[in-house]
Amino acid sequence: MSWTEERVETLKRMWAEGQSASQIAKELGGVTRNAVIGKVHRLGLSNRAGAAPAAASPAAKPAAPAPAKDKPAARAEEPAPAAETAPPAEPVKPAAAEAPAGASARKQIVPAGQPLPPQPSANEISPEALASVREIEKSAKKLSLMELTERTCKWPIGDPATPDFWFCGLPVQPGKPYCEAHVGVAFQPMSSRRDRKR
DNA sequence: CCCTGATTCGC
DNA sequence: GCGAATCAGG
């Protein structure tokens, strides 16, 4: 794979959006996060949005915008001054969610989920699974949408419409999108109910 | 352990 | 220019 205009643009866009190098790498495909980081540096857009690393030391805050300086001509770059405008929210649609443990009311205001969210459905869940879920939810890592990765349980907990909403975040079961407990309630064999003899 | 970005350096 | 290996954190 090579850095075509298009790929570079995607890289720039995502980097500006605050996406991590690994996420960008996955999006682009064919490259590792190292490649992405390397490219980012070569492109000279390492520091994202004037992040103020704020050196521990005293007042060493130049803050001198003084841009017109070096950089002869031949530069159609965008100055991108104060990138204060929030760049966060990306087009990822919040997954619909419902309190799995039947913990609370159901709102379902959120449109629809994509591949992520499950929807245990009003289905009945085995008491065992339900119990374990209740328990792990107490130790959930409470990750935000952006903190989810391929190895964090994506089970939604709480009401998406309120601040009391987060994702389980515990280590996922290999190959599954959820942790062991949530896999248990997410993937019901389809008929464990009837004469369940477990 | 998982992850992050930063740097180096052979290619 | 490229990116794996490595470093330095969280």
From TrEMBL:
<feature type="compositionally biased region" description="Low complexity">
    <location>
        <begin position="49"/>
        <end position="67"/>
    </location>
</feature>
<dbReference type="InterPro" id="IPR011681">
    <property type="entry name" value="GcrA"/>
</dbReference>
<protein>
    <submittedName>
        <fullName>GcrA cell cycle regulator</fullName>
    </submittedName>
</protein>
<feature type="region of interest" description="Disordered">
    <location>
        <begin position="48"/>
        <end position="124"/>
    </location>
</feature>
<dbReference type="Pfam" id="PF07750">
    <property type="entry name" value="GcrA"/>
</dbReference>
<feature type="compositionally biased region" description="Basic and acidic residues">
    <location>
        <begin position="68"/>
        <end position="78"/>
    </location>
</feature>
<feature type="compositionally biased region" description="Low complexity">
    <location>
        <begin position="79"/>
        <end position="107"/>
    </location>
</feature>
